[in-house]
Design brief:
Layout (H helix, E strand, L loop, with lengths): L1 E5 L2 E6 L7 E5 L10 H8 L3 E5 L17 H14 L5 E6 L1 H12 L4 E7 L7 H17 L1 H12 L2 H6 L1 H13 L4 H13 L13 E6 L7 H10 L3 E6 L6 H4 L1 H12 L4
Parallel strand pairs: 3-4, 3-5, 5-6, 6-7, 7-8
Antiparallel strand pairs: 1-2, 2-4
Helix pairs in contact: 1-11, 2-3, 4-5, 4-8, 5-7
Length: 266
Amino acid sequence: MNAGTTDGLCWEVHDGPADVPSVILSAGLGGSAAFWSPQMQALTERFRVILYDHRGTGRSDRSLKPDTSVAAMAQDIVTVLDATETPRAHLVGHAAGGNAGLQLALDHRDRLHRLVVVNGWSRPDPHVARCFAARTRLLEAFGPAAYVEAQALFLYPPDWISQNDATLRISDAHHVETFPRPDVMLARINALLAFDVDARLADIPHPVLVSASADDMLVPPRLSRRLVEGLPNATLDVVRYGGHAFTATVPDVFNARLIAFLLGDV
């Protein structure tokens, strides 16, 4: 593994077999590269994998630049691609990372091969806004610990939470310790709520896998169907179960479909 920090962005490169395509992974609102741990073995067996922590999160610079937006998140992806000497890559993005991938496809078309958008959206949505408003009020009124404790309710199915409570409590403690500054988290939420490329989806020519879960209560699958309706070269894949974080709750299901798409079998 090679690692470094460029313009405040902490990145890692995991080399796969010789002469294989590169895949860059972009996490959701939490921004941490560790989100993709359930995908790493499956991906590194076949690809050169690039991970990074979003600006303001994880090991990256814990502050944000003044122009906080999804377009700025896409520009950060370009920064990481340049730093890792990657002319072009597949991109797999979850929620915020998927939206940044859509923006990357519009702003830097030549840097992208295939795009995977997991639980993303193309324009502001009232349901998503209500969920973010509740999380924002928790953070502002009670701080990171309350925000993190409630986070599982938005991410995972109820039975999965019950069956994994002990593990989640350990994870929650770690997330509280590493939580971004509240002003950073609120700025990232506002950037996502302002994101709107709905009228420009037809300008994205890349093959896109739009991946969703039928029981996602944070980003309903109808928003993924909206993406597929607007993208000229998209495939919709909806898993039956797994919640917003189905990449972690049913990783084998997600990984199989992800690999097939990146290899061009879908």
